[in-house]
Amino acid sequence: MNKPAFLIVLALLLSPILASSQTWPQLQMNGRTFMGYKDSTEQWVVPPQFLYIEEPYSNLMLVKDGTKNYGLINGKGEFIIRCEYQKLERQKMRDSSRFFFGGLLACQYDKWGLLDTLGQAIVPLEFESGKWLNQSTLYFYRRGRQLALDNEGNTLFEGDYEYTEMASSHKLNKWFFTAMKGGKMGLIDWDNNIILPFEYEALVVWPSDHVQCRHVGGRYSMTDMQGKEILPARFKGLSFAGYGYLMATDFETGKSGFVDTTGTVRLPLEFENCGLVSNGVLGNGHYFKAAKTKEMALFDPDGKQLTDFLYKDLTCSSSAPTLFFAQRPDKKFILLDSLGQPLPAPPVDGLSAQFTAIGVRNGNLHGLFTLDGRQVTDIKYDAADGMVSKKDMALLTAEHDLLPPVTVIGRATLGKQKFFITSDGRELPPPGKPKEEVTALDGKSDGDEPLPNPEIAPEFPGGENAKLAYITNNLKYPTIASENNVQGMVMVQFVVERDGSLTNIKLARDLGNGCGQEALRLVQKMPKWTPGKDKGQPVRVLVSLPVRFKLG
User: Fold this and answer.
1) Using an 8 Å Cβ cutoff, are 132 and 105 in contact?
2) What CATH number is given for 442-552 in this structure?
3) pLDDT of 132
4) What are the CA-CA distances from residue 326 to residues 25, 256, 285, 350, 426 (Å)?
5) Where in the chain are the domains?
């Protein structure tokens, strides 16, 4: 029986197992630490003993034990491979429609190899590194020997080089290697054909399917993946900037500019430094900024200068892609249009585009501009941002009969009052609440004074680690805070109610630059907590939550 026929027969024989997989129980957590499986009768099939269990796949599950080592178990919880490996990894890009027949990429004591599903070595664990290239191909490296194999251990490529690094070409749908022989780098393909000779100090393959070549003596050039020269060896440095552009520095003059991946000069190499400013929404490429002495000017995609050399920095936000934020020498920010002309909006200390509006700051006071740069509020609020949910926007639109082009674009806080701001500058109370009742509430209070120190403190669902993971995964560093290198701690206070909802959410300490608003947003989006208890009964509890903002 040939192999395809064998696989079909085996799939038919195992189809009851696949059908029964519909009744497989879900992963269960015992407390906050160990995982196992329960059946439909809530009986433990696999007792809670692992830090991690992979979903069942061909009746096999990867597991990680308390020592953080990996192993393989069957559906009964019996070990097929003991937890003795620092890494076990199945094929990439697998899906539920096909069986798992291949081996397991394994690492034990920093040595890599390939195991079958019984733990026997298909490729001995003797390599310095290993990885899956795709769903059926592996690559192993050991100085002086490189292997590419299929998942049954058959050799697809073997080389004898001092060093290799894998690189794929999306355009050519091929794998390549930058390799070292005799201390010099070259480029070879999967069939060991030499694409670039072994005569370079270094080679780097970029995601754009281009190769940066460093020649002996320090000059740089660029080729495509077929070895055709695109840029000659005249550069002191080349830096891939995305969107098909490269920042280039001339070897002789040390001056910088931009070229594209066709070799066309887009910004002459005559500036002390330069950068790419995104503004692709206009459909004609991206803009450049370049400096002479310490001041920058703005250039269009064709390299035409749009402004004088006036600015300390120029940026563009995806939320307001037709505008540029320009910082003057006095550190004030103004807005420029796509032709480099200043807008009527006044200069401010800070600008940050936030989804539906541009938040502005002067000192400790805040206001809002529209995304096209029009000022809609005075700069008078304690806080203001352009983060409005679609739900709030729809409720307010219906409640106040807003008609286009008027829409809700932001939120603002003044003392104890909270408002939603429209595109024509009106202050609206939160939906369904009269203006005088506007507070920082995000739930319903039951009226009792909250306790600061109950017998049992309230808890984020999943515990402290889950809370930290939520903050880490959901925190969006405000652009203006990042641009001004603002770091530190914001303190948010709120009440955890008897039902676990969060109310009275407010800032106890703020860093400004949008950090406080971001911390409030994080808390407002949190799920219900496990409520605190005192004398056996759920109680309202006052909580102070630190949110750290740290760059890098």
Assistant:
1) yes
2) 3.30.2420.10
3) 84
4) 57, 21, 20, 10, 28
5) 163-346, 347-439, 442-552
